[in-house]
Design a protein that fits this description.
It is a single chain. Helix 1 (5-39) packs parallel to helix 4. Strands 1-2-3-5-4 form a five-stranded mixed beta sheet, with helices on both faces. 53% of the residues lie in helices and 10% in strands. With 359 residues, the chain is of the alpha/beta class. Bound molecules: zinc ion (ZN).
Length: 359
């Protein structure tokens, strides 16, 4: 069949329009599902959200993956790959990445690879050794299980039901420690630079505590204190949960291959915090060591599970301040939550005495 000359002249433009239209449709569909969920999370989990993707968005992606390569295709595929990650559409992400490898191998590299597990998505950007990301995911699973066993926090993500994200990226050198990136609209993400592509080892030869860093950042994911200007905890909360989990896992997984490259507990543990000269100070809300002393005091008098119960109580209550959906608690509310959740009278008294001793 012969196409009229006019259509032939406009064919590239028509194809471009179709590519952009399909990408936009897919990205918008994902955004709408995530926005609706974030407004009213209920009990829905991310796995069930994925089933809500409308048929026309699926076919738009399908068309895009089979579209002829032209200049707009690579950026359109990248856009859709990011959107697929926002909804944990791992199979779609992989299909898009494979297509991008044909269209633009450099762009495909920037996307990286993902490992999706029930509670999180690990994304690895860089030339990691085979199995690196799977082992990283095993470590993260163990850390989350450690948090379950010690504190029993009910919800990790700032948007309930959404999986956590960790973005592991290979850099020539680590210039910043891992950090909780609060800016993403629909999920909690930890940014995690590494410089060794063969395996997650910690501490690094330069003395960076990456394993502790992962445990520490999850503390931030769960709870921030005060507000953006006033960190009521003076950055002691995540340090406390971090060393507590490092110590717990070092005891529990002693001798296991998983922990073999992760030796942070020698330098980062609750036992060490108890003996540090800087922490030999009265509990208070005025300084980092004061708050550390307060948290250690609670840990010793009522145990970490009571701390977890109190945070879960505040979440159920749903009154705590949220900034970009991240939870910000206040110690006065935390005290009230401890009073409401500790059943044994003597333990409740002890916890409140610790709280009231810190001013
Ligand atoms: Zn921190």
């Amino acid at each position: 069949m012969k196409l009229p000359i006019l259509v032939l002249a406009f064919l590239p433009t028509l194809l471009l329009a179709q590519v952009n239209q399909d990408a936009t449709r897919f990205v918008q569909a994902v955004a709408k599902i995530n926005d609706d969920h974030a407004r009213n999370p209920g009990q829905a989990l991310e796995s069930s959200l994925a089933t809500k993707l409308p048929g026309d968005a699926k076919s738009a992606l399908q068309r895009l993956i089979h579209a002829k390569p032209e200049s707009a295709l690579a950026p359109a595929l990248r856009q859709c790959a990011e959107a697929a990650l926002d909804l944990d559409l791992a199979a779609d992400f992989d299909r898009i990445r494979l297509r991008l490898e044909e269209v633009s191998p450099d762009e495909a590299k920037k996307l990286g690879r993902i490992v999706s597990r029930p509670r999180f998505l690990v994304r690895g950007i860089g030339d990691f050794a085979n199995g690196y990301l799977e082992r990283f995911a095993d470590v993260l699973d163990a850390v989350l299980k450690g948090y379950d066993e010690v504190f029993g926090f009910a919800e990790f993500s700032k948007v309930p039901g959404k999986k956590l994200r960790v973005r592991v990226h290979l850099e020539p050198e680590i210039k910043q420690p891992p950090h909780f990136a609060p800016e993403f609209p629909w999920h909690s993400e930890i940014d995690f630079p590494v410089s060794d592509a063969s395996e997650l080892r910690s501490p690094t030869p330069k003395g960076q505590f990456l394993f502790y860093g992962l445990c520490h950042e999850l503390g931030h994911v769960i709870a921030m204190w005060g507000d953006l200007k006033t960190m009521e905890d003076h950055h002691s909360w995540a340090h406390y949960t971090g060393v507590t989990i490092v110590e717990h896992l070092a005891d529990k997984l002693k001798g296991s291959p998983l922990l073999q490259p992760l030796g942070d507990s020698r330098w980062r543990s609750l036992a060490r915090e108890r003996t540090l000269p800087v922490n030999q100070t009265p509990a208070s809300l005025k300084s980092a060591p004061g708050v550390m002393k307060l948290l250690i005091g609670l840990h010793e008098s009522v145990g970490p599970r009571a701390i977890g119960d109190a945070i879960n109580f505040l979440d159920r209550e749903g009154k705590s301040r949220r900034l970009n959906r991240v939870r910000y608690y206040r110690f006065t509310d935390f005290r009230r939550a401890l009073a409401a959740t500790i059943k044994e009278e003597d333990k409740k008294k002890a916890a409140l005495a610790v709280m009231d001793g810190a001013r």
